[in-house]
Structure formats: structure tokens, C-alpha cells
Design a protein that fits this description.
alpha+beta, single chain, globular
Amino acid sequence: MKKILTLFAVVGLIVFTSCEGDQGPPGLDAPLPYVFEVTTDFTGPNYERNVPIQGMLSGDVVLVYELVGTTGGDRWALLPQIYYFNDGLETAQYNFDFSKTNVRIFIDGSIADFSQLPNSFRLGKTFRIVLVPGDDGINAKKAKADYSDYNAVIAKYNIDDSNVKKIK
């Protein structure tokens, strides 16, 4: 009887240690949350920038911030950001949409020809894209960060933004 049990143990060990299957999808270098930065020019015809992303799950949150100033440290404003031109008669705004694999940052507004916007509005614009985990039910009772405040989001989710991944 001992020989049969030993035989089963050896066969089971071989079977379970030699199992192979398809390797799962590659993971992120770091788990959510994380942040990266893109500097871009908005040119025609679409006046948009597509930024590929990976690792998002259903329910995760994408936040996009525009760099609006650097005096006294970087200042970030949550999109959408609306700007007024021609004595307030026309508007243009930075906005974004996203899927699980892409964030699209774009200019929208009432101005008929976005090429007429000042170069400072269209060229060399810097944005930070922050991916944070969605509500998983476990943290449902925790207070959410003030998403309009970049620094509050960074603090809430313990994000180290001292070495932000820059997307070219």
C-alpha cells in the first residue's frame, strides 16, 4: 500500500509541476495608479493627440491635467479647460476621451478654424495623464480625492511623480 501511495505522489508531483499553458498578457511596470506626461503640438486636420495606454481595467479612472503655469512650481488644471477668444465670443477647450488602450486629447470649441488659435494655445502643450483604480467595492467608503487638484490626487493615491514617464 505504501508503494502505491508513493507512486501516486510521484506521478502527481510530475503532472502538476510540468503543466504549461498560454502565458497571460504582459502586466504594467507598476500597478495602478500611475502617471505619465506628454508634450504635443495640436495641428490640423484633427487637432488631437492619441496616447496609447495599457493595463486599464473596467471602472478605472483617467484624469488628464494641462500644465498651466510654472511660476512657484508646476501648476496643473484638470481637463476640460475652456478658454475664451475674440472678446469672449468664441471658445476653445482642451478635452479628452479614452478607451482601455488609448487616451485622446483634443481641441474643441466654437472657433471655425483652429489654426487661427494662437501658437501658444496649440504648440508645445504639456499634459499629465493619471490612471487611478476605480471603485472596487473594498474602498467604497474611503473618501475620494479632489480630482480637480492634481496634488491632492497624487497624495491620495501615493503616486511618486518625481520621475514621471514621458511619452514622445
